[in-house]
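Good morning C.,

I know you're traveling, so I'll keep this short. The sequence:
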Amino acid sequence: MKTAFIYSDRFSSYYYGADHPMKPVRLRLTYELMKELGLADLPGSTVIEARKATEKEILLFHTNEYLRVLKEANSGIIPVEGSAHGLGFGDNPVFNGVYAWSCYSTGASMQAAELVAKGDADIAFNIAGGLHHAMPGRASGFCYVNDAAVAIKYLVSLGKRVAYVDIDAHHGDGVEYAFYDTDRVLTVSIHESGQWLFPGTGLVTDTGIGDGRGYSVNMPLPPGVCDELYMRVFDEVVPSFIRGFRPDILVTQLGVDSFETDPITHLSLTTRSFEHMVKTLRSFGLPWVALGGGGYDLSNVARAWTLAWAIMNGVEAPNAIPGDFISRNADIFRLDFLRDRPIEPFPLSREDLDCLEKDLKYLKDQVLPLIGKDRVKEEG
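The tokens, ready to paste straight into the viewer:
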């Protein structure tokens, strides 16, 4: 097993603002925790310096007009046409280096895709990626360039069939949009329902159009879903669609804003379900491009992605976090353990549980057969 970790110290040099929940410093924190626990120089693994994406690569998904405006915003001054492209105050602030930051996060995802496509790595992990909300012509949800869509477009151009699995608390709307009408890419998003959370999309009945009908899979969840129920949903949805689709390459968005202590979402997961999902994804044995994503409790981000990297490399990470590491990062890190302790499940209403069961049945009975039928037709 060959693994690659794509990283740059430059990641943490960008700053959305003091009051913004997105903190790129969480990426430095994650890498430093990996090093502290002896996970940065594992046998068969390589740490690779991230590069910037080229304009040509970004244009695989984004428009020329948007790219022009985003480049203007790199100065930290809002362009005249900024608001028309989602740039300005609020979710998508314009800050010094915003375009450079987007180029690095996207370039690292392209590197991961290239390494895996060429067979130079079995698994490649870019924790700066997974910025899944950006649309062709606008920024959205803290995301300026949709690195996942760009990397998948590249893989499809090589003739690959790609399965994209998104476990972020927010619906992976930008990636779904990019491939809503094609059967070359399967997108699976398990997320908190848009009834309660941005971006307000991702209904179970949103399944694709044209050739893509059945290839967009959405499983919205009510607030309060905890480990047991989430793992059940994941286990009933993801493996069956992966088996039916039979992709050449797996791309995942491993957002951890689904954790119980995340400040802007309402799910109740812990590292227990996160580890279970990462182990399941690894068990598929597919060439794997792993991307980061959301996560606004910085301790959760560092712990979860450190656990993910250990699993990708087939090693057991130690549970105790050294006191020296905690002392050095006391302003942004607060826990002395890698794995969460059990938490009391949040009681869901009968109405929520019934809706969840109905949605699971819909995916199994109405959507999954569409994948199988197309594969039989293709091979016949």
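Safe travels,
E.
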